[in-house]
Amino acid sequence: MHKPMNQSMTKVLFFTKYSRLGASSRLRFYQFKELMENENIMPTYKPLFDDDYIKRFNEGKRRFVFKYYLRRFVNLFTIFRYDFIVIEKELFPYLPPFFEYLISYKNYIVDIDDAIFHNYDLNSNIFIRFFLKSKMDIVFKYSHTTIAGNSYLADRASINGTNKVKILPTVINLKNYHHIKKQSKNDGLVIGWIGSPSTLKYLKSISKVLESLVEKYNVKIYIVGATENIGFTKNIFYFEWEESKEVEIISKFDIGVMPLTDTPWARGKCAYKLIQYMGCCIPSVASPVGMNKFVVKNNENGFHAVTDIDWFNFLELLICDKELRVSLGNNSLDFVKNNFTTDVVYRKFINYITDI
Questions:
Q1: Mean of the per-residue pLDDT values for the chain?
Q2: CATH T-level topology, domain 10-171+341-354
Q3: Domain spanning 174-339, CATH class
Q4: Cα–Cα 20 to 30 A to 314, which of 11, 32, 120, 180?
Q5: How many other CB atoms are there within 10 angstroms of residue 301's CB atom?
Q6: Cβ–Cβ < 8 Å for 279, 249
């Protein structure tokens, strides 16, 4: 796939949902930018929503989408300039797939890293369910290839007539992680979670467990990316998410957690939190939902927890056994190195988006 510099540049247009500030867009597309440019592939990113929209969304402020939709509509007239077109999820959320149909002659690729189709077929609004329940199925069908973050997403695309379905997990660039060293510290053990305001509800589901552990062992709880009260305040520390600092903060965790409720939406998640913890050599406790159960191997790199008793017992075990934390943490890092890094998946990524 390496191209001599005298060959013409391959131009790829990415219709991302967000700017680099949005996690899904950053991890599925932007982080491959330098690697692509090194191969004479020129990526162009045209996000639907910009940094200001994301910040207002996270702050719970009102957003107006008309200007963003208008800008994307205008950008559709530029697709003839590019060799390949990649769409993150959909072109226009909550509109019919008319525009995907119009550009299907370009053999676009669609990428999904969560169960976006459940925004429609399981929506509480009866009109959205009626008119848009099959929207993403049609988007998959019009695409040349659907790239899915896990098997749950791939199965949905496969049964609805898409031409090709490929699985590509969400990964980390290990160069940003490998230099992180766990420092011995005397200021207390840390249980950590990273996410967003919209996913904090999952952490709240184990708040009583965390509170009990705080009371019994005086552990600290680090929450990155959200600030809402989870039910208690003792020993809780909140950190604003910043791309340049996230690895530094995660590396301060001794144990990472990823609770989920077993719902159709949660089954579509790609376990990225766990991959980040593991990249920092940290053992994890996670709900065995969706991809979590494949990323966390019981008693190898972490533990599966279903009930509150499970959560308490496994977290207590890791709190009390430093050697176990170190062993599972080392196994976690090895697992990520072999399965969930940009170096591992980049070649597949390029082949999938240019195999037309």
A1: 93
A2: Rossmann fold (3.40.50)
A3: alpha beta
A4: 180
A5: 24
A6: no
